[in-house]
Amino acid sequence: MSARELLPEAQLEDHGLLRFLTCGSVDDGKSTLIGRLLLDSKGLLADQITGLEAASRRRGLPEIDLSLLTDGLLAEREQGITIDVAYRYFATPARKFIIGDSPGHAQYTRNMVTAASTADVAVLLVDARHGLQPQTRRHAYLARWVGIPRVVLAVNKIDLVDDARGAFERIRTQFHQFATGLGFAEVREIPLSALRGDMVVERGDVLRWYRGPTLLQYLESAPARHDEQAQPLRFPVQRVVRVAGGNAQPGSGYEIGEFRGYQGTIASGRVHLGDAVVALPAGTRAHVTEILTPDGPLQQAGADMAVTLRLDTQIDLSRGDLLAAEDALPYHGQDIAAEVCWFDGEPLVPERPYLIKHGCATVRARFAALDHRIDVDSLRLVERPQTLHMNDIARVQLRAQHPLAVDPYTSNRTTGAFIIIDEATNRTVAAGTVR
Q1: Domain enclosing residue 373, as ranges
Q2: 319 and 243, same structural domain?
Q3: What is the pTM of this model?
Q4: How many domains does the chain have?
Q5: CA distance 70 to 77
Q6: How many CB atoms lie within 10 A of CB 14?
Q7: Is 387 buried (19+), middle (13-18) or exposed (0-12) by CB count in 10 A?
Q8: For the segment 239-251, what is each residue's pLDDT rounded down to a tens digit?
Q9: Within a 10 A sphere around the Cβ of 366, how many other Cβ atoms?
Q10: How far is 70 from 235, CA to CA, in rounded Å?
Q11: Contact 101, 86 (CB under 8 A)
């Protein structure tokens, strides 16, 4: 019985929701680790376990293959790799979790960035037999690039090396030498065996020299990445609607008489009745007179809430425009300094125009300059590259055809992020963050 099972339920503190992802190089055991977490924490139903056992027998395996739980696509099961991002949900008495299992192959780096963009903690797996790999370093850099403050260096397959403690210490030292400059708020190192279950949920018997927490113990107490500082209002307009008096329903919050409403999801901050806002790109000042939802009117609303705003001034806004707090406006212009991660198999052609999708806005843009590329193995800067290839990360200068309202990514992860699209193929070729 684990120590956490000995505690009375009344003594367990609810730490809320934690989103974390598993990442690292291919075959380091990410999917198996998630399967072990779910199995040993009693997060699987009996029919799920029966299905895993049957699938493992069909593959001729003597024991249950826990990786099959997340490798759900047929192509993944046939190849034994993870291609898509698989999400799983489970809970313990102390916390609820959302897990993102990201692919380890270099050609699926874009999937890893997708999973990392909403995660609070990155669990970075390393095979104890092979040590740090190029993809290990790349995933560590990308995790910090998208703002994840905490990383767990999970040294997996520790039971397969002769000098387990020595191998753990070597990998730990190598990673700290690499990650010192990345600025993580916390790096926690945990040796474990996802296949056997040692130091995942239970401590096991083979790693007695390790005195720290198990992976689950750490995840149950790790702070979630909620924005603690107050952020100014950012309201990207998704839709402009006209509400006629004849369509108004009693108690809906809509007054008799036609008016223009602006619908969207609040990206950051709060909005109150009477607040002064500025509409961009028009630059027009207005006040909020109504905050409407399907359940009725509100006095105020916060981030992640979908609302319809009514203003005291008729403004010609459209999808892609932004309502911002009057006393804390974003940068609004055509020249944007950014870092981008190139995803596409075809290299960047700097002379060509691309599309930037920022929030609900899509504008044409070109690469005005490539300042430098970042060598993720050494964190060395390669000045003035001629182009970017798959998985390259670089500091660039973009010139948009029309002004965009943006914030630095470090202060706002919604208005500070964008994707780049090849308008000829409609492929997403890169993701970027505003500097």
Answers
A1: 331-434
A2: yes
A3: 0.82
A4: 3
A5: 10
A6: 9
A7: middle
A8: 999 866 434 444 4
A9: 15
A10: 35
A11: yes
